[in-house]
Amino acid sequence: MRQFQSDFLDFVVDHEILKFGEFTLKSNRVSPYFFNAGLFNTGEKIAFLAKSYADAIASSGLDFDVLFGPAYKGIPLATATSMALATNQGINKPFCFNRKEAKDHGEGGTIVGAALTGKTLVIDDVITAGTAIREAAEILADNGAVLCGIAVAMDRQEKGTGSKSAIQEIEENYQVPVISIINLENIIDYLAQASDPHFQTHIDAIKSYRSEYGVN
Fold first, then answer.
1. Rounded to the nearest 10 degrees, what angle do helices 184-193 and 203-213 cross at?
2. How many helical (H) and strand (E) elements, i.e. helices and strands, does the chain have?
3. Cβ distance 11 to 48 under 8 Å?
4. Rounded to an integer, what distance in angstroms lies between the CA atom of residue 187 and that of residue 200?
């Protein structure tokens, strides 16, 4: 596990963004952990999240021309990540995002910020069904941009309706990498190394959940 991943796990556990217990998901599966990206809701938290995205993107070595944040959640993520890349990684890239409805005055159109062109990295919080990414890919195609990768905060490494996860399906369908700050394996490793016996008690439940719903 890389240092930025360990630091990220420390942060999300300390701020109860990542919790352990029993949580019923939208899929009706009962998960032994829950990652609530909506709790990155203060200046400190969003700054840390953006730095973590920047660390993960820089570590991936991915070559891209522009960051794109799909409305609405992706807007602050792309903005803050662009700042963190410039400040912490020396990577100065333009960013843009879309409006849900076209503006019929001023500059008009649906894209705000830099031109949506060239190799584009999409920033999102999590991928569940992959619907938001498919919509983003259509926006890119309509503007002549090329999807070259996707960055998310967490990969649950969990089956969807079939034998693959939504992330695996996206990687296969679009032939692009999905960069995640952390994934389920990182959580298991983190708990295994934790000195707090309270965390140790959750490992078996998570491993059992992975055995039933995890992907290879």
1. 160
2. 8, 8
3. yes
4. 11
By three-state DSSP, how is residue 199 classified?
Answer: helix
User: Contact, 146 vs 120, CB < 8 A?
Assistant: yes
- Alpha carbon distance, N-terminus to C-terminus of the chain: 18
Q: Confirm if 37 and 182 have CB atoms less than 8 A apart.
A: no
- The DSSP code for 92 is -
Type of residue at 154: M
Q: Which residue do the tokens 């109860």 mark?
A: 16
Helix, strand or coil, per DSSP, at residue 23: strand
Using an 8 Å Cβ cutoff, are 117 and 142 in contact? no
- The phi, psi pair for 18, rounded to 5°, reads -110, 120
> What are the tokens at 51?
């730095």
| Residue keyed to tokens 């995640």 | 180
Phi and psi, residue 187, nearest 5°: -65, -45
d(CA 149, CA 59): 14
Specify the residue for token string 């002549």: 144
pLDDT one-digit tens code per residue, 25-43: 888 899 999 999 999 999 9
In the numeric block, the tokens 């809701």 are attached to 41
**pTM score, two decimals?**
0.92
Active site amino acids: 103, 105
> Which residue ranges form the domains of the chain, and what is each CATH number?
3-213 (3.40.50.2020)
Using 50, 70 and 90 to split pLDDT, how confident is the model at 102? low
Distance of alpha carbon 56 from alpha carbon 79, whole angstroms: 16
